């Protein structure tokens, strides 16, 4: 369904809002939830999504990708209850109009059974207002709602499914050159971005296409500005290379000085190499974390190499979140929840999982690191 773009805000039944038709390619439809009235809200507009989150709606990720064309989906409005209703049935549309519903527009389009995935419509008989209908591509969610007393009303329409975990979390560095990125397209495919700010310091004597000799990432300022001005929340990370407690503190200080002006949502230390020659990685990581906190960073997390998790023995309880990378058997850009080797094995105590280094998103031709949240509802904590 092309859930068409609009900047007007309103509380609508089933949480659906569509505006004036625009000639754009198929786009992701974002799903949000209002805990006050139980309504879900679906929109293809990123600005609107951000405004709703600021107003207290909980972001639940992408629902599906809108279809470019096909069978019309009709939108009707009930002036008595404030509810909106969506149907592909001309008969149902006309019947509702005889009952006082107001026909508003064609809100989008449905694919066919052969080309799209079913979006199910459910009805809550205990709710007569804004939250009475729900639409989902997820068969398990449908079954759960039915078990709770919702009435299954069958397939509402067909849309293009999305096969990567939602919300979409991207981490990026100077290796992804801004000159090769269409930020408009890439921003439309991600929900949160974690930008590398530095890789060690001048002590490592490393300079390449992605970083200066000082360790400062060559593209971090551009990446942050371009995503932030498109409404994408940005966190930051530093690849940590300190060889002593004092060097760990110095790296944290440089990291903070470079990034604090951008007001990132979260600060991450990337611990992938045992660089400590004086002291232990546990001591070094704690020095890095505590220095960031002392400087003013509110939330500090640790990205820990899965195969080195036990060896590093970091004091993970001191960090505000843990991020672990494992890419499964195929590392094909997707996450298979049924494949045991898709999951980190070193610990079950993690909040975010980098599941591929070969992700593909619109706006960049090349491999991308993508991560998933263990609990999608933590998005607001990590990126709010």
TrEMBL record:
<dbReference type="GO" id="GO:0016998">
    <property type="term" value="P:cell wall macromolecule catabolic process"/>
</dbReference>
<dbReference type="GO" id="GO:0016052">
    <property type="term" value="P:carbohydrate catabolic process"/>
</dbReference>
<dbReference type="GO" id="GO:0003796">
    <property type="term" value="F:lysozyme activity"/>
</dbReference>
<dbReference type="InterPro" id="IPR002053">
    <property type="entry name" value="Glyco_hydro_25"/>
</dbReference>
<dbReference type="GO" id="GO:0009253">
    <property type="term" value="P:peptidoglycan catabolic process"/>
</dbReference>
<comment type="similarity">
    <text>Belongs to the glycosyl hydrolase 25 family.</text>
</comment>
<dbReference type="Pfam" id="PF18885">
    <property type="entry name" value="DUF5648"/>
</dbReference>
<protein>
    <recommendedName>
        <fullName>DUF5648 domain-containing protein</fullName>
    </recommendedName>
</protein>
<dbReference type="Pfam" id="PF01183">
    <property type="entry name" value="Glyco_hydro_25"/>
</dbReference>
<dbReference type="InterPro" id="IPR017853">
    <property type="entry name" value="GH"/>
</dbReference>
<feature type="domain" description="DUF5648">
    <location>
        <begin position="29"/>
        <end position="159"/>
    </location>
</feature>
<dbReference type="InterPro" id="IPR043708">
    <property type="entry name" value="DUF5648"/>
</dbReference>
């Amino acid at each position: 369904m092309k859930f068409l773009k609009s900047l007007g805000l309103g509380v609508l039944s089933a949480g659906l809002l569509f505006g004036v038709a625009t000639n754009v390619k198929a786009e992701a439809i974002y799903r949000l939830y209002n805990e006050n009235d139980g309504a879900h809200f679906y929109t293809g507009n990123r600005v609107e999504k951000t405004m709703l989150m600021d107003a207290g709606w909980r972001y639940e990720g992408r629902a599906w990708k809108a279809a470019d064309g096909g069978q019309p989906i009709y939108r009707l409005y009930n002036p008595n209850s404030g509810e909106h209703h969506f149907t592909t049935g001309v008969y149902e549309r006309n019947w509702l109009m005889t009952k006082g519903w107001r026909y508003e527009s064609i809100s989008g389009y449905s694919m066919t059974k052969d080309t799209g995935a079913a979006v199910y419509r459910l009805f809550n008989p205990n709710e007569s207002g804004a939250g009475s209908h729900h639409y989902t591509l997820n068969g398990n969610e449908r079954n759960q709602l039915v078990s709770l007393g919702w009435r299954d009303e069958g397939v509402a329409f067909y849309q293009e499914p999305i096969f990567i975990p939602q919300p979409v979390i991207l981490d990026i560095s100077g290796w992804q050159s801004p000159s090769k990125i269409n930020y408009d397209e890439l921003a439309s495919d991600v929900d949160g971005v974690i930008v590398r700010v530095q890789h060690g310091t001048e002590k490592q004597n490393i300079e390449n296409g992605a970083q200066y000799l000082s360790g400062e990432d060559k593209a971090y300022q551009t990446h942050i500005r371009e995503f932030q001005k498109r409404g994408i929340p940005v966190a930051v990370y530093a690849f940590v290379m300190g060889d002593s407690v004092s060097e760990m503190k110095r790296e944290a200080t440089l990291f903070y000085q470079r990034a604090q002006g951008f007001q990132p949502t979260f600060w991450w230390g990337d611990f992938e190499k045992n660089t400590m020659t004086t002291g232990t990685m546990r001591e070094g990581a704690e020095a890095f974390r505590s220095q960031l906190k002392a400087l003013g960073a509110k939330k500090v997390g640790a990205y820990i190499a899965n195969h080195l998790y036990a060896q590093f023995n970091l004091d993970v309880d001191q960090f505000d979140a843990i991020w672990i990378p494992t890419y499964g058997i195929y590392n094909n850009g997707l996450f298979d929840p049924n494949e045991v080797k898709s999951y980190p094995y070193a610990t079950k105590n993690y909040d975010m999982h980098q599941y591929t280094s070969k992700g593909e998103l619109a706006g960049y031709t090349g491999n991308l690191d993508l991560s998933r949240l263990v609990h999608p509802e933590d998005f607001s904590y990590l990126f709010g």
